[in-house]
Amino acid sequence: MVSTRRAQKARMLITRWLPNEVLTHIIGYLYRPDQATVARISRLFHGLTLPLLNRTIVLDMVDRPDIIWELCLTFTDHPERADAVRSLTIMNSSWGESNLDFSQLFETINLMKQLEYLHFEDGRSHDALISRLSVLSLPDLSTLHMIFPQSDLRNTAVSEFLSRHPTLTHVHLWDIDDSESDPTPPDRELLGTPNLLPNLQLYQGTTQFLDAFCTRSLEAARICVHQGNIHKVLALEELRDPALPFALSLDIRVKDDEMREVLEFLAEHATYITSLQIRILGRRFPDEITACIDSITQFLPQFPNLGNLELNHDFYNSPLLAVSEEAWQTWIGIAPTLRACCVGKRAWQKVDQLESQWVEYTRNKFEAQAGFSSFLLVYQYC
């Protein structure tokens, strides 16, 4: 951006008839380098632009821990800058070789009183780091995304953090260890909060916390399930209420003979879901994909409210691609309530209810319509 004297004079004239809120909105559309240039034009633009530069922060603990330290010092000396932060992402927080003081970092985060989005990835063995969550109190926090190795101790620490943040509406809790043995869920009575997160609208993650959540306002859930934890899905009372539209997404890593048991359980206890997404994890051979399709075909008529169905397997060159159209044709023939269907990377939508005319459309549009577009894709952590 080239700033001539004439251009600078024109910008000064703009400030006389545009309110600061409008100027801030316009500056917000600029790229960050241009925002930094605008901040040097005048004190007014500096005051308007600086909060925008601090609004979204991404910290990478591995590449430049020295920058994190400088940021902590800056926010400590200028708390008003921390107050401008709305989104904070902390990456690669194993921090094994970092000299950063954890307490200093979390005290800095605590200055971000208007923080709305927190993305936090913990390392594999830092119980001391998880315990630092106890110092955080973020009154405007609405979205939490945490990836950490789950254990009894860590789950309790996370639950205590959740109990102090009833404003959360979107929660993502993933286990980095990919273990099929679930840790003991935290005791709700010990927490003194029988219903965590009364405003929760979307949950994505493992099953350990389901029993403690208040799910009255829950609209969608993506859960990583296997044979040993599928029964915990019953904590979602919405699955059994025919009056509530509900979108359920399952990341399934079960073996072939267990897939049928999972679907049989859903057909018995989760009859009234309106959108069902099944995402198969890991490499699968053609006969395994065929067995999965056959199991869905068998239990599909037992879901009378199901309007959106998706079977997905994002493995490269998945055998699902070869049978996607055949599976779709079979399912719409036995489930008249279906309005949209997605198999692999292909999706179809019913456009004429009377004559059952279907057209192919994009998978992104399908997931937006079905209520799955808000989920984050974290295959490696499930």
From TrEMBL:
Highest taxon listed in the record's lineage: Eukaryota
InterPro entries, per database record: F-box-like_dom_sf, LRR_dom_sf
Can you say what this protein is called?
F-box domain-containing protein
Record organism:
Roridomyces roridus
